[in-house]
């Protein structure tokens, strides 16, 4: 299973795992892959610094990376109050009505509620980069295209490679022209922000279009799928959804029991690609919340980051409600294979065993 990617990043397995959980990221790095911590949940740079310090102390000296969000076509700056002024009252009223219709209770008065995610803003994302580069990270990935040239240069000056996600070959070519070192070819099946081309088609298109290592993302949750990704020319895999159903995820997101129940009970048909989560197309678990936004009386989602600010309070209430039928969670079609909550190390062991079995089966067909 070892590829050139392993030597480049100092890892044992070509498995890159994106996760908002530092416990998952650290466990994956300890298991031989590369845990990549999503930074967008950190509005406070000092909080991110504390978490990365924890990562330094809990990865057993193994490498890890971070994921930032620097979208190119949204308001680049502004406070939450400034941006909230652009949210129409009709959209606020619709969200309030849906929460009432779904019987989602209000938060207790003493709740220390996390504010809307401001990590979409360039100023906040830049602070994430500055903090991360003060830690021994081995990769910075941008979830929404190429980072600005000066950010790429800043990373390269510190010897840190940069990755960017792409949903089309032309996007991948542009990333490489901008100085990106790795391209994540993310297919239609993937959770979160994703394009319209399936992985089986997208991965070889991007491999043929660029001369940098390509990571396959979307629809990968078994060793067989890993073997297929490498056969298509990828140097490794980028996985996100599978880590949501792990024991370590609960160590970070302690009130996610209902979410994991919903994921474990879902099939590969139980997702929907929609703009209601952030304003950009993203694949989510299909629930009563997503169905309400698909109704005839629902307004059109707002552009990023306004949609995220609109629904952030609702997401907090949904999360606290502990009701699997209304959770709002990005997840890929691979959710159909997520049938139990397991330790990260067990997921990795199954990936390796399944990969070896796939190669053995192919060898027998010669």
TrEMBL record:
Swiss-Prot/TrEMBL keywords: Flavoprotein, FMN, Oxidoreductase
InterPro entries for this protein: Aldolase_TIM, NMO
Its EC number(s): 1.3.1.9
Enzyme class: oxidoreductase
Keyword Protein biosynthesis: no
Top-rank lineage group of the source organism: Bacteria
Entry's Gene Ontology molecular function annotations: enoyl-[acyl-carrier-protein] reductase (NADH) activity; nitronate monooxygenase activity
Stored Gene3D superfamilies: Aldolase class I
Oxidoreductase is among the record's keywords: yes
Protein name as catalogued: Enoyl-[acyl-carrier-protein] reductase [FMN] (EC)
Annotated source species: Amycolatopsis camponoti
